[in-house]
Amino acid sequence: MSERTKRLLIVIGFILSVIVIAYAIWAAFFRATPQTPAPEAPQAQAPTGGALTPSQTGRTPGAGEITPGGQALPSAAEVAGGGITKTTELTTAPVADATLSGDGSGVNFYNDSDGKFYRIDATGNVTTLSNKEFPSVENVAWNKDAQKAVLEFPDGSNVVYDFDNETQVTLPQHWKDFEFSPTSDQIAAKSIGLDPNNRWLVTTNADGSNVRSIQELGDNETKVQVNWSPNDQIVAFSDTAEGQGSIDRKMIIPIGKEHENFKGLIVEGLGFQSQWSPDGKRLLYSVSGSYSNYRPLLWIVDGTSASMGDHRKSLSINTWVDKCAWAGIATVYCAVPQGLPPNAGLQPKAFGTFPDAIYRIDVDSGSSALVAIPNGEKTLSKLFVTNDQSVLYFTNLQTGNLESLKLK
Questions:
Q1: In this structure, what are the phi and psi dihedrals at residue 47, rounded to the nearest 5 degrees?
Q2: Rounded to whole angstroms, how far apart are CA atoms 147 and 180?
Q3: Rounded to an integer, what is the distance from CA 301 to the centroid of its chain?
Q4: Half-sphere CA count of 134, side-chain side, radius 13 A
Q5: SS3 state at 5
Q6: Read out DSSP for 7-75?
Q7: 322: nearest Cα among 376, 392, 380
Q8: Three-state secondary structure call for residue 3
Q9: Distance CA 214, CA 216 (A)
Q10: Residue 297 half-sphere exposure, CB side, CA atoms within 13 Å?
Q11: C-alpha–C-alpha distance, residues 20 and 371, integer Å
């Protein structure tokens, strides 16, 4: 072996020794020790009243299933008592645009398969509201007594139909987002012209006469929600005010029927939706903010023209307001999705099929209680409570069928 080769081998050996020693030092003193994953933090809630514990991820068990310990879960109760509760399927086909009937004991709905409207009671008895057929109705806006409705069709046609008198009136095709006044003699709508300068919030008599322009919409049509107050003063809410200092804080502007300049409503979150209490003195709404990890959260505030936004209180319930139903002036029943992840409030359609539990909320005290877990995994929409508060109606979002649950 030549002297040159010997020197080369010595150099290579030295380099390899340095690498081995360096790795040994790194492994002994610097390599991170594997850590056990930390448990997930509980859901954040707003810092005000309410008794609901944040829901945990997981599915709702069905009655009769076997637990890991080998015990069968209790059968579903006939009447809601805070646990798994039996529900009754009232229709065998999907229904649309359900609403509580005028007598407060049944439900009116539209059947897309035959284009007719029906009424059903808690025992499943079905009667037709009219023999007239309305094929392919797209949206229905009922009046307070469910005796009249504005029917919107895919071609843009709009009809006001009186089921008691079997009469109808045609409204302009460029109108949308209809809602009846508390007395049912007027209708609010958005008049959407091709020119943004010709887009208005309008009111009209139920027979289509006496059209009045209430508020110019311009390019802000999607930021205005028609929501006529029971006291007949406010017809809509507008999310068009300037920022209030943070991305979560917004001012919602009430739009008066007579162009009144009402006090703005400050809300802490995005995605404002609202429901009036039956007496119009309070407003229930949902928004999604950083304090709730952008899950939807319910709030209650005063809603009169003089006290709009006063006595604001979080109800500590993570759900959207359109999954709630008033039962009197101080009680609300809500379907609460179980296991909603962070940011669900920003994408309600993407997280709209989680199984629901039903909670009863006392808006005076802010307290809440679990009422029922519908038997099986069901997502509830279009909730209504009968006037005697004995039955809760809902549409099963998975099947589209109308169902009921006994509250007492």
A1: -80, 20
A2: 11
A3: 18
A4: 28
A5: helix
A6: HHHHHHHHHHHHHHHHHHHHHHHTSPPP-PPPPPPPPP--SS---PPPPPSSPPPPTTPBPTTSPBPPP
A7: 380
A8: helix
A9: 7
A10: 33
A11: 67
CA atoms within 13 A on the CB side of 97: 20
Task: At 154, list the tokens.
Answer: 């895919």
Select from 141, 144, 111 the least CA-distant residue to 129. Answer: 111
The residues near 139 (Cβ < 8 Å, ≥ 6 apart) are 97, 151, 152, 178
Express each pLDDT in 228-248 by its tens digit. Answer: 999 999 999 999 998 787 888
- Is residue 158 exposed (0-12), middle (13-18) or buried (19+ Cβ within 10 Å)? buried
One-letter amino acid for residue 246 of the chain: S
CB 255 within 8 A of CB 227: no
- Inter-residue long-range contacts of 351-358, CB under 8 Å, 24+ positions, other chains counted: 352/379, 352/397, 353/379, 353/397, 353/398, 354/379, 355/59, 355/60, 355/379, 356/323, 356/380, 357/55, 357/60, 358/80, 358/333, 358/334, 358/392, 358/405
**Comparing C-alpha atoms, which of 277, 224, 230 is closest to residue 254?**
224
Strand ordering across the sheet containing 391-396: 88-89, 402-406, 391-396, 380-385
Task: Using the Cα atoms of residue 64, residue 67, residue 69 and residue 73 in order, give the sign of their dihedral.
Answer: negative
Select from 327, 278, 269 the least CA-distant residue to 298. 269
Q: Which two tokens stand for residue 364?
A: 């005076």
96-113 per-position pLDDT tens digit: 999 999 999 999 999 999
Tell me which long-range contacts 124-131 makes (C-beta under 8 A, separation of at least 24).
Answer: 124/88, 124/90, 129/163, 130/161, 130/163, 130/166
pTM above 0.90, yes or no: no
The beta-strand segments (E) located in 257-348 are 265-268, 270-276, 282-288, 296-302, 313-314, 324-326, 331-337
Q: Are 383 and 374 spatial neighbours (Cβ–Cβ below 8 Å)?
A: no
Note the pLDDT tens digit of each residue in 263-300: 999 999 999 999 999 999 999 999 999 999 999 999 99
Q: What is the dihedral of CA 57, 327, 85, 82, to 10 degrees?
A: 70
Both tokens of residue 44?
């954040």
